[in-house]
Amino acid sequence: MEQQRWLLLLFLGVQLLLMGAFLYQNPHCHGFISFLRFLIQDRPEVREELPFLVQVSSPGIRYWDVYSNLSQIHPVDISEEDLPNCPIVSPYINGPLKVMIPENLTMEQVVEKNPLVELGGQYQPPDCWTQHHTAVVVPYYGQAQHLRDLLFHLHPFLQRQQLHYAIYVVNQVNNTAFNQGKLRNVGFWEAMQEEDWDCIFFHDVNLLPEDDRNLYICDIFPAHVSVAIDKFNYKLPYGGYLGGVFALRPIHYLRINGFPNTYWGWEREDDDIAARLKLSGMLLLRPHLLFGRYHMLEEGQDPSHKQRPQSPGLLARIHRKWRHDGFNSLGYRLLSKELQPLYTNLTVDLNFPAP
């Protein structure tokens, strides 16, 4: 009996070691690894409260300026071939962030605050090689102030995570109604022609992340990331809400045939995406509410937080059309591609037939 007990303990120990090695090597295990990082970085000292157990509005919590300690990031005097790999846990991640937009902020000031960002909004860690390559696609409908504030906050947020990333802003002309799905499809296609991105974040222009442990890397399934928005009291407004920030690997995107092209304004795009995930057999992941916290800038176009009952037969209609309405039926004309100091600006005419 004693020998069997020891054999069982040995077996369990080997299994734990194998699982640990797998998680260490596998970049897809984002959720579990994030949780481990969360625990490692926030072990409190004696009599110190865990900061993530308190509401953002509560006093006494230490919040970091999103630009704090970024001055420590600078090029090193060695060749690119000799750069070390970036650590698994970025040393610049701090946790809860202050959202502080200076008054009378100009785009020139944002450029000055981010000297390592290259033309077109591209960034690579200057002192290490990273495994994570993320494109951020921002559908845009003329919210210039929102875009400036997003760039001011998002660039240092992503640099803290030691990502290789670029920001693509996709705006439409010759249309009176906003077509977010089609702009997302355009952003995906144009971004993937430029780089072999392994992760695409589709990002509303008016949402600013409040915790840099909310990693902008992709998991083994699609992820709805903006799960705790201040406007909605840091909780989902309803169970099927998929608005805000959404992350897909290219294989996920192709599997759901991208986003629908036929929704103008703010119709039932969330319901359509949820149905595509279900019909393609994929799960939807969400970060913990303590990570996926966002500040919403003054509300613009999106009233999609209001829960609306599904109309009868909606799922059946989506089932009939989703394989034919998406990336494979995308038609647009690229009018210009401008490499701005902080982003790549794509201007498109959406009134163009599919090829």
Automatic annotation (TrEMBL):
Q: What biological-process terms (Gene Ontology) are attached?
A: carbohydrate metabolic process
Catalytic EC class: transferase
Q: Which pathway is it part of?
A: Protein modification; protein glycosylation
Q: Name one GO cellular component term.
A: Golgi apparatus
Q: Which part of the chain is the Galactosyltransferase N-terminal domain?
A: 86-219
Q: Where in the cell is it found?
A: Golgi apparatus membrane
Question: Which Pfam families does this UniProt record tie to the protein?
Answer: Glyco_transf_7C, Glyco_transf_7N
Q: Where is the signal peptide?
A: none
- Record carries keyword Metal-binding: yes
InterPro entries xrefs: Galactosyl_T, Galactosyl_T_C, Galactosyl_T_N, Nucleotide-diphossugar_trans
Q: Where is the Galactosyltransferase C-terminal domain?
A: 224-298
E.C. no? 2.4.1.-
Any GO molecular function: galactosyltransferase activity
Look up the record and name the cofactor or cofactors this protein needs: Mn(2+)
The record's principal subcellular location, in a coarse class, is Golgi
Please explain the role this protein plays, according to its UniProt record: Responsible for the synthesis of complex-type N-linked oligosaccharides in many glycoproteins as well as the carbohydrate moieties of glycolipids.
Q: Which PANTHER family match?
A: BETA-1,4-GALACTOSYLTRANSFERASE
Query: What does the similarity note say?
Result: Belongs to the glycosyltransferase 7 family.
> Can you say what this protein is called?
Beta-1,4-galactosyltransferase
